[in-house]
Amino acid sequence: MDTLKPTPRNTILGFLADIAKESYSPQRTQQMQGVARFMGAPDIASTLDRLSYGESLTSGRGMTTKLKPETEGALTSLLDYIPTSKPALAGAGLLGALGMTKSKAMDALRRPPQAEALETARKNAVKMLGLPENNTAMDRARAMGYVDAYHGTASDIHKIDPTRFGSSTGAKSAKDAFWAVSEPSTARGYAEYAATDAKVKSLLDAADKAEKRGNWDLYDKLVAESEDLAATFQAQPLQGQNVMPLMVRANRGVKGAQMDAAGAEFVDLEGGVNRFLTQARRDGRDLAVIKNLADDVGVNGRPATHYAVMNPSIVRSRFAAFDPARVNDNDLLGRADLGLLGLLAGGSAGAAYLSQDKEK
């Protein structure tokens, strides 16, 4: 019989939240309650309480992400008691962790960075691209030569990190570039693989190494762990799979190379693909495009156009500002201070999570 279990609460954050709540409880004098409320205790208590249960402190997605009202109130209240010159937030060390000054944090609260980025991009597009005053992000994207693409992963990213290329599949071709594809179903195959099969494979690979060393105890342990993990994924298939809608700048100033796989599967063409990618990198290409390649980790075998990105600046999120003045930036969204939202959404681990990805 299924039973409901309480959500675990972080002891320290829960303790701080309870102290903040106590400051304006009915047991306090009216004067004390008034002072506590004036200093923002209710917003601080609510924010700490959310953090103690691991809840997000933001709402919306992509370019619409913003702080929840009580979180904004808590930050504003705390910032009022920090000297402008000192990048440290009492107790939590929030600003210190981000290397932010008080004035920069206040600017982020006053105006969402994505709104400013969109307005700046609109104005720049009028001057640099000759677009009308009412141009949209998609108008700018098409004018700069971006095409639709998707990336399958087990996390979320805002910046492409070349050091993580191939961390999911380990394939040589995957280590040469950041991969995106024209078909969302193909990207879904890689999202599934990164979230489940890749983790099981990692344990089995480690078990093989232990076997070769004759470490049979470790071998048995790793094999058992892999079987338990596979059973967990079977029972709970949703493991953070994420198909990211992207756009890749495939022309307009991009130095690219192209080949046609004519519907062949990757396993039958792996050598040719690897040689093609190696030559493209030697030639200093920004992008290598492989058309009609069937490579979706066994989802449906449907051929698609695969984009091997060697210059990270040519990739943007579908929700980016598409600012022509920032066309060479390695920034998927083209907006600032994502670290603040990441830290508020899940503590310091949340901020780091935004820059992680298991590449194809």
Could you walk me through the main structural features you see in this protein, from its secondary elements to its overall organization?
The strands form 3 sheets. The chain has a 4-stranded mixed β-sheet with strand order 4-8-7-6. Strands 3-5-9 form a 3-stranded antiparallel β-sheet. It has a two-stranded antiparallel ribbon with strand order 1-2. The protein folds into 2 domains: 1-55; 132-353, no CATH class. The radius of gyration is 24 Å and the shape is flat. It contains 13 helices and 9 strands. Residues 82-100 and 335-360 have low confidence and may be disordered. With 360 residues, the chain is of the alpha+beta class. It has helices at 11-22, 30-38, 41-52, 69-79, 94-98, 102-110, 113-128, 137-143, 172-175, 184-212, 216-235, 266-282, 338-353, and strands spanning 58-59, 66-67, 146-153, 178-181, 242-249, 256-260, 287-293, 304-309, 315-317. α1 (11-22) runs antiparallel to α3, α3 (41-52) crosses α4 (69-79) and α4 (69-79) packs antiparallel against α6 (102-110). The chain is 46% helix and 12% strand.
Number of domains: 2
| Strand coverage percent | 5-15%
| Helix fraction by DSSP (H/I, runs of at least 4) | 40-55%
What is the count of helical runs? Answer: 13
Contiguous low-pLDDT stretches (5 residues minimum) are 82-100, 335-360
Mean pLDDT, to the nearest integer, reads 74
Structural class: alpha+beta
Largest sheet descriptor: 4 strands, mixed
User: Could you spell the SSE succession in H and E letters?
Assistant: HHHEEHHHHHEHEHHEEHEEEH
* Alpha-carbon distance between the two ends: 40 Å
What overall geometry do the principal axes of the alpha carbons give?
A: flat
Biggest sheet, spatial arrangement of strands: 4-8-7-6
Number of strands: 9
Rg over CA atoms, rounded to whole Å, is 24 Å
